[in-house]
Structure formats: structure tokens, C-alpha cells
Amino acid sequence: MIYVIATITIKPGSAASVLEAANPCIKATREETGCISYDLTQSMNDENTLTFVERWESYDNLKSHFNQPHMLLWREKGAQFITDRNIEIITAESVKQL
């Protein structure tokens, strides 16, 4: 299983516009092959910090996601609002059990 934690910082006052641009992508992504979950959250401490929390069956499914039309459209529409981003890809294999 692959986890993705993608944190974005957006321009102040743009949260509603970002959510409007992201919602079609979120809905379509949840229907993609290999998508286990795909959620967008907003920080309780900073309304300008949003985080996508994703779970994928495989890295191949995730790679396919990056080229989907709804993802490309989200990138185009969302770019005007994003000031910073940090994307972490985590695999269960990298976690050691105690």
C-alpha cells in the first residue's frame, strides 16, 4: 500500500476557490482503479494549509493518477492559488515493526 501526504499552502482568502477547483478531481480520483481513499483536509490552526491524504493499492496506480485528465485539470486550476507544497510518498515496506 502507498500513502501520499500532500500539504499545500494557499493564498489567503482562497480556500473556497481551491475547494471548488479540487472537488471534481477528488470525486473522480475516488473512482480510479487502485484508489483506496482520497481526502482533502484543512488545518484547524491555519486556514491556508490544506492536506491531501491518499491511500493507493500500488505505486503503479499512483503513477497513473498523475496523468488522469481530472488531475491535470486540478493542477491547472489550482496552480494560481498554491504558494507552497510538500508531497510525501510513504510505503508500508519502509516502516519497521517493533
SSE diagram, text form:
Layout: E1 2-10, H1 15-29, E2 35-42, E3 49-56, H2 59-66, H3 69-78, E4 82-91
Antiparallel strand pairs: 1-3, 1-4, 2-3
Outline:
With 98 residues, the chain is an alpha+beta fold. It has one domain: Alpha-Beta Plaits.
Task: Describe the fold and architecture.
With 98 residues, the chain is an alpha+beta fold. The protein has one domain (2-93): 2-Layer Sandwich (Alpha-Beta Plaits). The chain contains three helices and four strands. A four-stranded antiparallel beta sheet has the order 2-3-1-4. β2 and β3 (49-56) form a beta hairpin. α1 (15-29) packs antiparallel against α3. It starts with a strand and ends in a 7-residue tail after the last strand. The model has no long low-confidence stretch (mean pLDDT 94).
Essential attributes:
98 residues, alpha+beta, Alpha-Beta Plaits, 3 helices, 4 strands, 36% strand
Annotation field: number of helices = 3
Mean pLDDT: 94
The main β sheet shows up as:
4 strands, antiparallel
For the largest sheet, list the strands in their spatial order: 2-3-1-4
Low-confidence blocks of residues: none
Shape field: globular
**Share in β-strands:** 35-45%
Overall helicity: 25-40%
Radius of gyration: 14 Å
Topology-level CATH name: Alpha-Beta Plaits
Structural class, judged by helices and strands? alpha+beta
By DSSP, the count of extended strands is 4
Would you state the CATH class?
Alpha Beta
Distance between the termini: 19 Å
Q: Domains counted in the coordinates: how many?
A: 1
CATH architecture tag: 2-Layer Sandwich
